[in-house]
Amino acid sequence: QLVQSGVEVQKPGESLKISCTASGYRFSSYWIGWVRQMPGKGLEWMGIIHPSDSDTRYSPSFQGQVTISVDKSISTAYLQWSSLKASDTATYYCARMIGGSPESGYFDYWGQGTLVTASS
Amino acid sequence: QSVLTQPPSVSGAPGQRVTISCTGGGFNIGAGYDVDWYQQLPGTAPKLLIYANNNRPSGVPDRFSGSRSATSASLAITGLQAEDEADYYCQSYDNSLRVVFGGGTKLTVL
Description:
The structure holds 2 protein chains of 2 kinds.
Chain A: E1 2-4, E2 8-10, E3 16-22, E4 31-37, E5 43-50, E6 55-58, E7 67-71, E8 76-81, E9 90-98, E10 106-110, E11 114-118
Parallel strand pairs in A: 2-11
Antiparallel strand pairs in A: 1-3, 3-8, 4-5, 4-9, 5-6, 7-8, 9-10, 9-11
Chain B: E1 9-12, E2 18-23, E3 36-40, E4 47-50, E5 64-68, E6 72-77, E7 86-94, E8 98-101, E9 105-109
Parallel strand pairs in B: 1-9
Antiparallel strand pairs in B: 2-6, 3-4, 3-7, 5-6, 7-8, 7-9
């Protein structure tokens, strides 16, 4: 399963790092992706990372806006912002990708979501 | 504007059959990439419903089925039940945008 860190309320301009901790499978064997869902809106793919070598792919929409990383030693993936904007207010999901590669993969397990609110 | 286009909403009465379309183009579905479908019940994380066009994970009822053609895909739900009321998303891969989701379809059971 994937367990995400809790609700975050931050001010615009602040930095933030949220986490996704995996258990029950070999963490290094599967891609982990991050998906944004803004209030009342659909799913948006942000990026994906392979824990074995930290190979990371970003959606063009999120490249340069966030950083995805992993710590293999504790089976945890991270999503971080250096300077939050009000428009980053959303629920963020991590999900395990199965199928070998982003080109052919799909998300079979999802975290419970982390609600991030950026407001002054 | 999503790369994959879904109808914003569909509806049906209990017991009926509904379909949800997912229309792409030459850089995603038309390029041969598989389509997957997710169900998101209100207030919960998405759940995998169909993978690789027409395969159901263990535990997903056979009332749910998927199909794919040249540049589009469809999710069909037969024997509609109240518990099927949810948002449904298709997902594929795009040569330029990487992993892509459809805009989502809200299913209402009348």
